[in-house]
Predict the structure.
Amino acid sequence: MEIREISTNKEKYMDLLLLGDEQENMVYKYLFKGNLFALFDSDLKTVCIVTKEDKTIYEIKNIATYERYQGKGYGYYMINYIIENYKNKCKTLLVGTGENEKIINFYKKCGFKYSHVLKDFFIKNYDHKIFEDGKQLKDMVYLKMEFE
């Protein structure tokens, strides 16, 4: 397995990024201001974008694994890579997600703890209803990891 930081032609990863954030104009809000990482294991499996929110806070804005590779540990490997690479760059690493217990538990398993909620985020910021596992997403749930 190899993780590479991608600095050019970031748009060519849009198909995979849209699995993590299904509205293209929302992805473009952070695509070029963030660091894009791609995980390869013979071919592309997972991508992740991390943005600097202020001098002590970074945020995982998007992480996505092709559906056929989900459940094989690629997302977990990517998150651990991000944690290792950002723990000396910031005090807080944030990640936001919809109210999906499966995904929230994934982040908790990676060491994140509940931070806060942005009410009606998906209703106010997307031009269509967003569904995960048959449930409409309304609120953005933030989790955080604190470093010393």
